[in-house]
Amino acid sequence: MSEQLKDTTMVPAAKIKPPAKVTVTWAGAHRFDGATQSGGPAIRMDASGETGPSPVAAVLCALAGCTGVDVVDILEKRRTPPETFSMDVEGERYAGVPGRLTKIHLVYRITGAQVERAHAERAIELAVTKYCSVRDSLDPNMPVTWELRLNGE
Predict the structure, then answer these.
(1) Average pLDDT, the chain
(2) pTM of the prediction?
């Protein structure tokens, strides 16, 4: 029995999430459309960058979206929701093949009169290091750094 199966069987049933399932369909050229198997909107990935982000850019978007959800949730629980929130993400890539991501840097841009720097920084730190399942799905040795630009800094 594999280590993964051994670990899974030790987890109480209430803590096991159902598997994530998607279907990805070729849409011609370097284009692929992906959607959950339960239906809903699709996302377009285009390795040529003509009709959607490349698959690697989609990974960067997924990381930003995942951490962003956590940051917003944490700030809302503090009753200091952001007024605006965006993220810039840069992924350094290996020059060879495959051109895997080797380092990611996120810039969080948050505005909100009630948002305090210490609380926003703590929310980001928790999102990146504890709560984001996308981050935990990436190579744990890959550096993921971040910075906060609060209220137009």
Answers:
(1) 92
(2) 0.86
DSSP state of 16: P
Q: 96 and 45, same structural domain?
A: no
Domain coverage including residue 60 = 54-153
Q: Are residues 60 and 94 in the same domain?
A: yes
Instruction: Tell me the per-residue pLDDT of 67-116, one tens digit each, with 9 for 90 and over.
Output: 999 999 999 999 999 999 999 999 999 999 999 999 999 999 999 999 99
Angle in degrees, CA 53, 127, 39, rounded to 5: 50
Strands (DSSP E) found in 28-143 = 31-36, 43-46, 84-93, 101-111
132 with 123: CB under 8 angstroms? no
**Same domain (yes/no): 141, 113:** yes
Take residue 18 and report the two structure tokens written for it.
């159902």
Q: How far is CA 84 from the centre of its chain?
A: 18
